[in-house]
Design goal:
The complex is a heterodimer. By secondary structure, chain A is mainly alpha-helical. Chain A is built from 17 helices and six strands. Chain A has a two-stranded antiparallel ribbon. Chain A is globular and about 60 Å long. The two termini of chain A are 23 Å apart. Chain B contains eleven helices and four strands, in the order ααααβββααααβααα. In chain B, β2 and β3 form a beta hairpin. In chain B, 49% of the residues are buried. Helices cover 73% and strands 4% of the residues of chain B. Chain B is mainly alpha-helical. The longest helix of chain B has 32 residues. The chains are: A mainly alpha, B mainly alpha. Chains A and B meet through α8, α9, α14 and α17 of A and α4, α9 and α11 of B.
Chain lengths: 385, 311
């Protein structure tokens, strides 16, 4: 097999994407619980089998070596799935949620995976974005694109309040700061009457330059679900965020971030500003979270404190760990699994937190690098990493 | 505010502070011997409280209904089973990750906390609803003007104090405590001196977890209600308390526990007084905000952990 397909070929990446797209369509289409379970079992079996023949290593290497082509193929895959469910609300809502969560997790990945800044308040920063968009759309006539931007900026701004304590502390002490902040945020939302208390707030649908995203699209005879709009918007956001994170990782900035995570003392000795890069990663990560939150709030039309609990932050962290910490590709797959599986397998829904927690424990014990371990940079030969 | 009301606040604060301190002592013990944070500690406390409740129901069923006997058996069963659980957690989840980054230990125990919490919610009969906890302590009270001194609170306060003192004595005055301190200071040298490292670690986790179970029972007896979610908040508060005082230091943990409850009481009293119209529910927001600010000022707590890094 090694001689037939070299790791430098883009074929494994493209083939994997095509297979995943087909699978996603079939999976989202499946209605009965037996069909869903059959597909899940089949997928697990297929992945195990392929892993046995070493396909996964090929695919991972190929994804890493052909970033551009692989990204384009995934983009195409998402569009194919969207087209397959053009008039079906629920799968499209799922798809858009997955894409927005990918943005959030990419932010967390910058913090955890590259700079090594722990953040156990991912859901809180997502929530700040949600509430910013709820308040601004209800109280002001600010254009909605600016509202989305404001969501990101407010999340980054509030996050910057934590910078000093996060920088001054290390290890467990730093973890406590974000945990305390996450709980503080949730309690604050619950008791604050201006923000709707435990009942939360309604959020109007998004409108960009007169284009109302909550109106269904019409293409000739076809009537599209209005969620298509949101899928396209989230896809654009996810693609930009993904490219940004991949570019950062490959650049000297990524090298600096990795160095900061691995050895602060050595970094300082070599003139890499530890504080500067930690601040950059923390702020950019929170910005991404807030951005995604603002769009999410307008898409679902409703925000409430119960969506931003400590448990939700833990789910976000488990996505990053499951995917393979520091690997944007793995995280994308993990987000899709973690969000879609419980929606389709209803009997899991009730047990989902239990299952994820148990799964993360097993992964940490037996495969600490995650399902798709991060690839080592490869600048030479080939010049593509 | 009258003196009576003030003393009522102080007394309630002391009561809560005692429970926080008991949780914090556990965090500090674990950190001392292994330099890890076992985040499932709060949830172990909650499982301990539920074990106590289940024991109570079992005792009622077999006809033992003297409150004192019930209490003692509940405390015994809860703390022993949680001690066992703590040792198991240490053996199968914490020790195997000794060489991994510290973040992984934090994560694995965080996730274990979720597993415990969700298991109680899903598998304890009607576990998602709050459960009434039996009133087993005498309900007498003494009144001094507007200040009521309840006998049950007094007993709880003294029990907590006794438990903390007992742990302290074990650590400072016994051979076992000497071994624990030796492992905390330098695990490798302790091993060379013939101390069974794993045994000491497991025992320390057992002691801390047994104490958490006791804290859980006290919490239940004080509020007369428990639910599956208490562990998370108590865990975070206990962790904050241990960090406020300085991890690895038992006095720091006690200090931190009382400090946190003082912050909460202050938030409940001072916030509505300063900004009319704010609800007392902001007390947790206030307390956690102060903790975050405090950490920026003293990154390793009041009694700072001695840390030197060799490069």
């Amino acid at each position: 097999m090694k001689r037939l397909i070299s790791a430098q070929s883009s074929f494994p990446a493209l083939a994997s994407t095509a297979a995943l797209t087909l699978f996603a369509v079939a999976f989202l289409h499946a209605e009965s619980q037996t069909a869903v379970m059959g597909l899940t079992a089949g997928a697990i079996l297929a992945v195990l089998l392929l892993a046995h023949f070493g396909w996964n290593t090929f695919a991972a290497a190929s994804f890493a070596a052909h970033g551009g082509r692989a990204q384009a193929s995934v983009l195409l895959g998402v569009l194919v799935v969207t087209a397959a469910f053009y008039d079906n609300h629920f799968p499209l809502l799922m798809l858009a949620s997955v894409l927005l969560y990918v943005v959030v997790c990419l932010g967390l990945n910058l913090q955890f995976g590259y700079a090594g800044v722990v953040n156990f308040a991912g859901a809180a920063f997502f929530g700040i974005g949600c509430y910013t968009s709820a308040v601004l759309t209800n109280l002001t006539a600010l254009p909605h694109l600016l509202v989305v931007l404001a969501g990101g900026l407010v999340a980054a701004g509030i996050g910057s309040l934590l910078i000093l304590p996060v920088l001054r502390t290390y290890g467990h002490y730093a973890a406590l700061i974000t945990i305390a902040f996450g709980i503080l945020f949730r309690v604050f939302l619950e008791v604050n009457d201006t923000l709707g208390g435990p009942q939360g707030m309604k959020v109007p649908g998004m409108e960009i330059l007169g284009w109302k995203l909550n109106d269904g699209l019409r293409l000739g005879e076809l009537e599209l679900s209005f969620y298509v709009n949101y899928v396209l918007l989230s896809l654009a956001m996810a693609a930009v965020a993904f490219t940004l994170v991949r570019r950062l990782e490959r650049s000297w900035i990524g090298l600096a971030l990795d160095a900061v995570r691995l050895d602060e003392t050595a970094c300082a000795a070599f003139g890499i500003g530890v504080a500067r890069w930690k601040i950059a990663a923390f702020t950019l990560g929170n910005f991404l979270g807030g951005l995604a939150g603002a769009v999410y709030a307008m898409m679902t039309g409703f925000v409430a404190p119960n969506s931003f609990t400590f448990g939700d932050s833990l789910i976000l962290v488990s996505i990053v760990i499951l995917g393979g910490i520091g690997n944007p590709w793995g995280l994308t797959v993990a987000t899709a699994i973690v969000l879609i599986l419980p929606e389709k397998l209803q009997f899991i829904q009730e047990y989902r937190l239990l299952l994820y927690a148990a799964l993360v424990i097993l992964i940490l014990l037996f495969r600490p690098d995650g399902l798709m371990p991060r690839q080592v940079r490869n600048y030479f030969p080939g010049g593509k990493a | 505010m009258t003196l009576g009301l003030l003393s009522q606040y102080v007394f309630n604060g002391l009561m809560l502070g005692m429970i926080y301190a008991m949780v914090a002592v556990g965090f500090t013990l674990f950190f001392g011997v292994l330099d890890v944070i076992k985040f499932s500690h709060g949830d172990v406390l909650m499982v301990g409280a539920f074990t106590g409740l289940a024991t109570y129901i079992g005792l009622q069923a077999i006809g033992i209904d003297a409150p004192l006997a019930q209490l003692l058996i509940m405390a015994l069963v809860a703390s022993l089973s949680m001690a066992l659980l703590g040792a198991l957690i240490a053996k199968y989840l914490v020790l195997p990750l000794r060489l991994a980054p510290p973040l992984n230990t934090l994560l694995i125990t965080l996730m274990l906390g979720s597993v415990l919490r969700e298991s109680v919610r899903l598998f304890y009969p009607q576990g998602s609803n709050p459960k009434p906890f039996p009133r087993l302590l005498p309900g007498d009270s003494l009144s001094f003007g507007s200040f009521t001194l309840r006998a049950d609170s007094m007993i709880l306060l003294l029990t907590g104090f006794a438990a903390i003192v007992a742990v302290h004595l074990v650590i400072t005055r016994t051979r076992l405590g000497l071994a624990i301190r030796a492992v905390a200071q330098d695990a490798e040298t302790a091993r060379i001196m013939g101390i069974n490292f794993e045994f000491i670690v497991l025992l320390t986790f057992a002691i801390g977890s047994g104490m958490a179970a006791l804290g859980g029972l006290m919490n239940g007896l004080y509020y007369n209600e428990i639910n599956f979610g208490i562990g998370l908040l108590l865990g975070v508060i206990g962790f904050s308390a241990a960090v406020l005082g300085g991890l690895g230091n038992i006095y720091g943990a006690i200090l931190g526990g009382f400090l946190f409850s003082a912050l909460q009481s202050l938030g409940a009293v001072a916030l509505p007084a300063m900004f009319p119209g704010t609800s007392t529910a902001y007390k947790d927001v206030f307390a956690f905000a102060v903790v975050i600010v405090f950490m920026a000022w003293r990154p390793t707590g009041l009694i700072a952990e001695k840390k030197s890094e060799r490069v």
